[in-house]
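Title: Prediction job returns without error message
Component: structure pipeline
Severity: low
Priority: P3
Assignee: unassigned

Description:
Job completed but the reporter wants confirmation the result is attached to the right record. Sequence as submitted:
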Amino acid sequence: MDLKLPKLGEGADSGVVVTVFVKEGDTVAKDQTIIELENEKAVAAIPATDAGVVAKVYVKAGDKISAGQRILSLAGGGAPAAAPAPAAKPAAKPAAKRLAPQPEPEVEEVVEEAAEEESAEAVAAPVAPPSLRRWARELGINLGKIRGSGPGGRIEIGDVRSYIARLQSTAAKAKTAPATSSPAPAKPAAEQIDFSKWGPVTKKPITTLRGVISRRMTENWNSIPHVTQFDDADFTKLNELRKKYAAAYEAKGCKLTLTPLVLKAVAATLKKHPIFNSSLDEVANELVLKEYVHLGIAVDTEQGLIVPVIRDVDKKSVPDLAKELEVLAQKARDRKVSGDELKGGTFTISNQGAIGGAHFTPIVNKPEVAILGLGRGVMKPVVRDGKVEARMMTPLGLSYDHRVIDGGSAARFIVDLVAALQDFSEELITL
C-alpha cells in the first residue's frame, strides 16, 4: 500500500521534505515518524498510517510535496486502505442564485470564479458532521470548496457561514461596480539582472521560511495602513529588579530576562486598552475584541524570524513566563516549534535589545492590529525633579493598523505602557 501526505489543515497542504527517516527494507510501525516536513514556519513530523516493510521511498530531502502525494509504499502492511470518499458534486448554478437572488450573468460568473479559486486548495474529501453535510446539500453548497477551521481541517458551521458571506460580498461588489471600470494595472514583470557583469557574485537559493516571511511581510505592509508611535521608557528599576532576582531564578532552573517583565506590563496595558487586542473581520465588517491575551514573541533564528505564541500571559506568573519563554525560544531556533504554537496571537512583541539599535518601525502581524518594537536600553542623562541623573532609557516603537486605531488611542496606550514598565511591582517577580 502507498502512504500519502495527508491534508494537515488550513495552510498546511504542502511543504518541503526536511528529513527522511526510513529507507527501503526498513520495518515501519504505525504512527512512527517517517519524514519531517517544513511548512510555513514550522517543521512537522509526519507519521506512518500503517505498519509494514518499506518497499519504495518516493521522496528525498529538499523535495516539495503536496497533500495526496505518495511518500513511500509498504509491503506486508495491515488492512488495506479504505477507498477514497467520493468527491463532492459541484454546486449547481441555481444554488448560487439562492445566495444572491437572480444575479446578473456577470455577477454569477464572479461568484463561480471565487468558488473555483477556493476549490483549487481543496485536495481531499471534506470532513464535516452529517447534519452540516445535509444543510449544505439543501443550500446547494459544495463543502469541497470550503477550508475547515476545526481539528484536522474539519468543517464547522462558522466556516460555511463565512463562505456564504464571502460569495455574497463578492457578488454585491461586482453588481455595484461601474460597468466602465477598467481592470487594475498588472504588476510589472520582475527584471532579472546579471550582476556578475560588474564583479564576482555568490548565489544562494531562497529558503522556504524566507519565502514565507517575504510573502507575509509584503501582504501585511500592502493591506494595512501603518502608523508608528515612538517613546522611551525608563528601564532602570526594571533592570535592577532583574539583577536582584536573577540568581534566585537560576537556582530554580530558569533564566530571568527583561522580556517576561515586558510581557506582564504589555498584558496589563492590553487589558486597559482592549482595541489593541482585537482583529478586523473584513468579511463580516466587524471588530473582534478578544478576551484572552496571547502574545507572539519574535525570535531571531539562523533561518529567519519566527514568532511563537505564549498563551494567557495575563494569567501566568513571571517565573512561569520565564520558563515557557526559554523553552519556546529554543524550540523556534531548533525549528521544532509546531504550527499550533505559531497561531492565535493577539499582539506581537519584537525585542531587539540584545542585539542593538534604537527606534524602528515593526510591521503589524496580520490579523493582529498592533505590534511593539523594543530597542536596546542605553544609559542617558535624564532630568528628574530638576536634577540630571543617569537612567537606562529603552526606545519603544508601537506600530498599529490605522483602520482600527486612531493616533489618540495609540498615544494613551504607550503612555500607560511606559508607566507599567517604570512602576513595575516587585511582588510580580518574587518566587
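Comment from assignee: result matches the submitted record. Residues 105 and 175 are 10 Å apart (CA to CA).
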